[in-house]
Design goal:
By secondary structure, this protein is an alpha/beta fold. Helices cover 40% and strands 20% of the residues. It has 2 domains: 9-161, 3-Layer(aba) Sandwich (Mannitol-specific EII, Chain A); 169-268, Orthogonal Bundle (Helix Hairpins), CATH 1.10.287.1490. The longest helix has 16 residues, at 173-188.
Amino acid sequence: MENVSTPKHASFCEYLRLDQVIFNLKATDKIQALEELLDVLVKLNYIKNKKPVLTRIIDRERLVTTAIGHGIALPHARLDTGGDIAVVVGRSVAGLDFEAVDDKKVHVIILIVWNPSIPGLFNHLFAGLAQFLIKPGFRDRIFNARSKKELHKILCEIELTLLSSEDKIISRAGLLWKLQKIEMQKKKAAKAKKKELQKQANLIRDELDDALLERFDKLMERYGFAVAELEDGACQGCFINVATGMSSAIEGSDDIYVCENCGKYLVAIKKAK
């Protein structure tokens, strides 16, 4: 259930002050950059100890890269910050290797740490940020900012609409697909391996809304799987065609849809590289 204190609309500036922006990162690799960003949150007393946060973020990066393409990365961790959310932004002129989906270097990193008592908050925040970050013109303005103050001012233009949990469309399809794979592997894994798999599953569950996970677990218990691919316009869970509009929306999307016939989550088919 969505936390009642979470605002429906918010400016990104409510989470990002000028002193939470690093205009020129000194780091030359991903780990150095994460440490440099976390040092800011320690200095501002948003977090007390960067080591457990860094470990959590690196563990998350090993599951699926948080570089979303086009020079942007959104590393994150769900840990107790003492508040709702802590954000820090770093800009790298040279760019950093984040193993991005488009193989491009990352020039802007938005690092987010959020409170465990607010499940799904990052999911909502991510959706709000993405609406701006997918616009080439907006990204170019971020990359070409001439000063820390200008960069902060541009980021302050981001207006967040914190989405409610709806059944029809929920983002983070890649994570839910990965969670299903892990849950299936756990059933056959040895005890030692099962512990590591559970750790990975918990990292993913931290990012997903309770309503989504509740449906996921019920489907897994009943059918043995909860997420089906869409192939040639048909749900591979029940092999019945979905509406043409939904089929078009799913193709190439990282959003999750629900099959109107069998109720399983639908994702675009994973094509072999």
